[in-house]
């Protein structure tokens, strides 16, 4: 956890420096942490998505969660896309999603999975009694998607959202 906090702090410092290069803004923050690079992405920094955008993209809503368990989230929904569970957390801005949202999602995914271990039980979503185990996450615009097995299903959904 100390390593994750250190990496996150360095990421915040790097992201807060002003730069005109769009590559620096669009580059996944996860390049700093090899373990997270395989299970997370930051994309669509210029876009803002709504609940209706996700539904229109084919994501099937199932259950709404209380935002008390996820600091700074404005809305949280569990659902699925392409037969994979995806929890969507909404934030006021991309900046909040890629900082507070990123940090919370990194803690929510299974630590043992990131360290090469077996399928664990520490990666439940906002609904702590939920059975879904998340293994990856994607920050897309002002949202964070927790992905059931890999970033692939969330990236596929983000591709549809972006069109």
Biggest sheet: strand arrangement: 1-5-6-4-3-2
Mean pLDDT rating: 75
Largest sheet: 6 strands, mixed
The Rg value, from CA coordinates, equals 15 Å
What is the global morphology?
globular
SSE string, helices as H and strands as E: HHHEHEEEHHEEH
Distance between the termini: 37 Å
Describe this structure in words.
The radius of gyration is 15 Å and the shape is globular. A hairpin with a 2-residue loop joins strand 5 and strand 6. The chain contains seven helices and six strands. The protein has a six-stranded mixed β-sheet. The chain is of the alpha+beta class and 163 residues long. The model is unreliable at 1-32, 117-124 and 126-131 (pLDDT under 50). The chain has helices at residues 2-16, 22-26, 34-37, 51-56, 94-108, 111-114, 151-162, and strands at residues 40-43, 60-65, 75-81, 84-90, 136-140, 143-147. The termini are far apart.
Write a short abstract of this structure.
The chain has 163 residues and is an alpha+beta fold. The protein is built from 7 helices and 6 strands.
What's the layout of helices and strands?
Elements lengths: L1 H15 L5 H5 L7 H4 L2 E4 L7 H6 L3 E6 L9 E7 L2 E7 L3 H15 L2 H4 L21 E5 L2 E5 L3 H12 L1
Keywords:
alpha+beta; six-stranded mixed β-sheet; single chain; disordered N terminus; 163 residues; 7 helices
